[in-house]
Amino acid sequence: MTLIRDLHTEDIPALTALAHVSVPLACPPDTKREDIDQHLDAVYSPGNLADWLANPALELRGAFSDEQLVGLLMLGAEASPVPVPASRSARELSKLYVHPSAHGQGIAATLLADARARARTQGHDALWLSTSKSNARALAFYRKQGFREFGERQFWVGNDPQPDWLLVLPLD
């Protein structure tokens, strides 16, 4: 059984480990390893993770299986770079990662259901996210869950600018 709970500072080592195995899978296959490493070192450093955990505008939730962190969900506070269609209040789904050993077990769907419920409770009418145009696995999952493209943006992995889709999921 999967347990979903808020993450805390004692989870930082497990968060770092999860990021190092799951984030590279979200990158286009031609992304240079040094750019991925630079991104991981900057974004998923223990200090940055501690800052996220201390920020009341962010929500970090973890999926645990047999007491091991196997999934990460982060509801962010960033506004979409382009207006979210048919939404008066969209919440950012900033991170959704699952350890490769747990792929296919429904953990991403469980984390997304948690995000939907939390966003609705907070008065939001949509979730928005950004994901790599080349991440076929993530795009298939998000489309199956009801997300639709509404724009594009550039996302930097290290020194590599990468094209992302902006996706929206209405919550009503």
Q: Which keywords apply here?
A:
Aminopeptidase, 7-stranded mixed sheet, 172 residues, alpha+beta, acyltransferase activity, transferring groups other than amino-acyl groups, 7 strands
Summarize the structure.
With 172 residues, the chain is α+β, with helices and mostly antiparallel strands. 34% of the residues lie in helices and 34% in strands.
Descriptive overview:
By secondary structure, the protein is of the alpha+beta class. The protein has a single domain (2-170), classed as Gcn5-related N-acetyltransferase (GNAT) (Aminopeptidase). Helices cover 34% and strands 34% of the residues. It contains five helices and seven strands. Strands 1-2-3-4-5-7-6 form a seven-stranded mixed sheet, sandwiched between helices. The chain is globular and about 40 Å long. The two termini are 29 Å apart. The mean pLDDT is 96.
Question: Briefly, what CATH class?
Answer: Alpha Beta
Distance between the termini: 29 Å
**Coarse shape:** globular
User: What string gives the helices and strands in order?
Assistant: EHHHEEEHEHEE
Which helices and strands appear, and what pairs or packs with what?
Blueprint: E1 2-6, H1 12-26, H2 33-43, H3 46-54, E2 59-65, E3 68-76, E4 90-98, H4 107-121, E5 126-132, H5 136-144, E6 148-157, E7 160-170
Parallel strand pairs: 4-5
Antiparallel strand pairs: 1-2, 2-3, 3-4, 5-7, 6-7
